[in-house]
Write a structure and sequence with these properties.
The complex is a heterodimer of chains A (about 180) and B (about 500).
Chain A (H helix, E strand, L loop, with lengths): L2 H22 L3 H21 L3 H25 L1 H5 L9 H23 L2 H4 L6 H16 L5 H22 L8
Chain B lengths: L13 H19 L6 H20 L5 E3 L9 E3 L1 H27 L5 H19 L3 H19 L6 H32 L4 H11 L3 H18 L8 H7 L2 H26 L4 H24 L4 H25 L1 H29 L15 H4 L1 H15 L5 H15 L3 H27 L10 H19 L1 H21 L1
Classes of the chains: A mainly alpha (about 180), B mainly alpha (about 500).
């Protein structure tokens, strides 16, 4: 077994075990932590595929933002923090069927792709160009020749959402009337 | 890296920038104002809207484009279509402000945030009409929606308001996700999100299942915003629970913005798929007309009744959209005319509902209209006139609008759609005219709370509706010019 295979097994094992823990742990807070671990494993797989930027984005967005958001939400709702219910409910059967069907679909797609020559000879992308792509992405976001206007509009969107969040979260002042 | 000087003419997007700047400025001013002073926000919003309107009108006939990326297709276009819609949105804002003022004061809502969120939402609506790239369409959709979600819930902790915000937010988030999925599918099939390039890709490679599926998803997303059946489930609850000026604003603004995006995508990106979408639009239109008008009859709450009425009016505009498949200029221009006339009529009707609402949720029943004519003869006359206009009885703006829409549909040979439109108009007479009947034929305790601002706004809207009813040609010629540029782009590819 080569070192690469060993690392792959370790990383994918981590992802799968953590993924199973997410749906079986009784404490919701622990489940959220297990989900972060699973995301970390996915980031590791991205690194092994040579997609460093994607791995960094995975770390920043999924672990840095989404998981933290979920943990915040759990911690803010005290009842959920203490809940020790069984994670299986009446929809478990339907969920299992959906999961199995999705799995079959994915296997089908992957085995079809397997015969494609892309898998036999993956295109060698020099590291210099890969780095350039990330730089290009960054400069395109703020370049008037590319995506500056969506970038600005997105920032206005966040500003409006921020104002709204503050408004909704602020203690209600008693009406003067 | 080399830096190329930006080729951006900010004057072209100035109307949107002014609105965004006024909104941001208001939040800064709010920091330095003592708590008691609140009047400045109204004036800041009104001045911002007026400045933007002036700059917007100055751009008429310019056919500007700006923010041009390497692929050579502008992200933002300022054709007459966009300018006309911008004017519609800015007028909506200008009319909602005087309608809101006294209502906000008596419900304890008078806060600068209300006006600033209103401005942000309007900037999103304007971008919906100007966006020439699906990414920007989506962002504009969110900029318009998120302030609206918050405005619906502004009266928290009152449960109806919270319910309204929550329902709108959840269903809005779903519909946005579907819209993005549609964009992704179209991108997957054409490798571009630029609307003219999608047209080119379809022209070169023809349609395939992926594009058509993407188109269907885009229509579902837009259908939610315009409250077309079967994507209308949220409308009555959201309209009922939201503060009434917010309901008025979204029943006009969000609906027109949804149609702006729908028309641009259908007419400029995928006109070659018109064989596919015309049937879908016609079916949506039929369902919307029948369900909107029939269910409205059973409503006892004026806000719910107007919610179903606004669903029904989406159906009439959809007739125009369907007609645009065959006859782009007549279809688009009659849709624009309809939306412009609807703006005055519907806001006017909501102005009266706002005046009748003593406190949040009190005085919203149809029975509260009883006997109003004796105490408030002029305003009741205006309300009766708005009801006639919503029904489509001449001489009102509503009649002219329906006339043009049905005319366009007949030219496009959509006879059965026109037939359904006419029959449902007759049905709608029942519930609209019942309001008039209640006002004039009964005695009641109803009392209007009117400020000078509200009276003035209602007066302006009644006059505008009358002018559109008596002299529709002027506006119709303008809308004909607004569609020309949209369709000329189409021919240019």
């Amino acid at each position: 077994m080569t070192g690469e295979q060993f690392v792959f097994l370790a990383v994918s094992g981590l992802t799968i075990v953590a993924g199973i823990l997410v749906v079986t742990l009784r404490n919701l807070f622990h489940a959220a932590l297990a989900m972060m671990l699973s995301f970390l494993g996915v980031a590791g797989i991205y690194i092994m595929l040579g997609a460093g930027f994607l791995a960094a984005a995975q770390l920043l967005i999924y672990i840095g933002a989404i998981s933290i958001l979920i943990i915040f939400a759990i911690m803010l709702t005290r009842r959920m923090m203490q809940a020790q219910d069984t994670p299986f409910n009446s929809q478990a059967g339907a969920g299992l069927v959906t999961a199995v069907l999705s799995f079959i679909l994915l296997v089908f797609v992957i085995t079809r792709l397997w015969r494609n020559e892309i898998f036999d000879s993956p295109p060698e992308v020099p590291t210099a160009i890969m780095n350039q792509i990330v730089v290009q992405l960054g400069s395109d976001f703020v370049s008037p020749g590319a995506y500056v206007i969506p970038f600005i509009v997105a920032s206005m969107l966040l500003l409006a959402a921020l104002i709204g969040a503050v408004y909704v979260a602020w203690p209600q002042v008693e009406d003067e009337a | 890296m080399e830096f190329t000087p930006p080729e951006i003419n900010l004057l072209i997007v100035a109307p949107v920038l002014i609105i965004m700047a006024a909104g941001s400025l208001g939040m800064v001013i709010d920091l330095f104002m003592p708590d008691g002073k609140k009047g400045w926000a109204v004036w800041l919003a009104a001045i911002g809207l007026l400045l933007a309107l002036a700059q917007n009108i100055a751009l008429w006939n310019g056919n500007y484009e700006t923010f041009i990326p390497q692929n050579g297709v502008a992200m933002v276009v300022m054709d007459n279509f966009a300018i006309f819609l911008n004017a519609t949105f800015l007028l909506t804002g200008l009319l909602v402000i005087p309608l809101s003022r006294s209502y906000l004061q008596r419900t304890g809502l008078e806060k600068p945030e209300y006006y600033m969120l209103l401005l942000f939402s309007i900037s999103g609506m304007m971008l919906m009409g100007m966006a020439n790239d699906l990414i920007l369409v989506f962002l504009a959709l969110e900029v318009l929606s998120i302030p609206l979600y918050i405005m619906c819930g502004m009266l928290w902790p009152r449960p109806e308001s919270e319910e309204s915000a929550m329902k709108y937010f959840l269903l809005g988030a779903f519909s946005s996700a579907i819209f993005v999925f549609g964009i992704a599918l179209v991108y997957g099939a054409t490798t571009t999100t630029a609307i003219p390039l999608i047209f080119d890709a379809v022209a070169a490679n023809g349609l395939n299942a992926m594009i058509v599926t993407g188109l269907a998803f885009l229509m579902v997303g837009a259908g939610f915003k315009v409250a077309a059946v079967p994507f209308h489930m949220w409308t009555p609850d959201v309209y009922e629970g939201a503060p009434t000026p917010v309901t008025a604003f979204m029943s006009v603004g969000a609906k027109i913005a949804g149609f702006a995006a729908l028309l641009r995508v259908l007419m400029l990106a995928l006109p070659q798929a018109s064989g596919e979408w015309v049937t879908a639009v016609a079916v949506l239109s039929t369902l919307t007309l029948i369900i909107g008008n029939v269910v409205a009859i059973r409503q006892g709450n004026i806000k719910r009744m107007l919610a179903y009425s606004s669903i029904a009016h989406a159906g009439y505009i959809l007739i125009a959209v369907a007609a645009a498949a065959d006859n782009p200029s007549a279809g688009v221009s009659s849709a624009l005319f309809y939306m412009f006339a609807y703006l005055f009529t519907n806001l006017g009707a909501f102005g009266m509902v706002i005046a009748l609402e003593r406190n949040y949720g009190e005085g919203n029943l149809l029975d509260d209209f009883k006997g109003l004519a004796k105490r408030h003869p002029w305003l009741s006359l205006a309300m009766a006139y708005f009801m006639l206009s919503l029904t489509g009885i001449p001489p009102t703006g509503g009649f002219s609008a329906k006339f043009y829409v049905f005319g366009a549909a007949i030219e496009a040979e959509l006879y059965w759609l026109v037939l359904i439109g006419v029959i449902t108009s007759v049905i709608s007479g029942y519930y609209y005219l019942r309001v008039v009947y209640l006002m004039y034929m009964f005695d009641g305790e109803g009392q209007l709370i009117t400020g000078r601002a509200l009276q003035f706004a209602v007066f302006v809207m009644a006059i505008s509706t009358l002018v559109l009813g008596l002299f529709p040609e002027g506006l119709f010629n303008l809308t004909a010019e607004a569609t020309l540029s949209a369709t000329r782009l189409l021919a240019g590819g």
